[in-house]
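Thread: "does anyone have the structure for this chain?"

Original post by V.I.:
We have the sequence but no experimental structure in hand. Need at least a predicted one for the grant figures.
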Amino acid sequence: MMQVRVDAQSNLFTAQFDFINNYVTLYILLIRKLLYSFTRLFFNKLKFKGKGYYIYKNARNTVTPQFGHAHRIYNYAYNVSVKFLSKTTIFIYGLSSRDILKVSYGIKKMKPINIFTGRGVRFSKQIIYKKTGKVSSYR
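Reply from O.Q.:
Generated one for you, tokens below.
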């Protein structure tokens, strides 16, 4: 069913479809996201804290942190760029916010924050609350 309205003041015709195909709305949503992504550059900043922790990338943008594991864990960043701001800070940027968040959360998942020591990977403005230990709570 279609409703057609005419605004007398501006001579504007508006048509509203009650039954619209879901694929059409999905297509319009994807086009809107695509146009929005070309107008903005998305970025994310990660910091990590800990003794002996370092992170590096190779020529194919494969990020590999060394967080005290016996084996290497790879995080593939195909559609984003990774830049090192300092020894403990990395900057991830690109055109798609979904890809940036996927890479950022993948790196963060490799070394979650320890609630007792505060060591691990965090986002740049994330607040970390440390939990008191059993021994320090009685002193």
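V.I.: this helps a lot. The longest helix spans residues 22-39.
O.Q.: and The longest strand covers residues 42-49.
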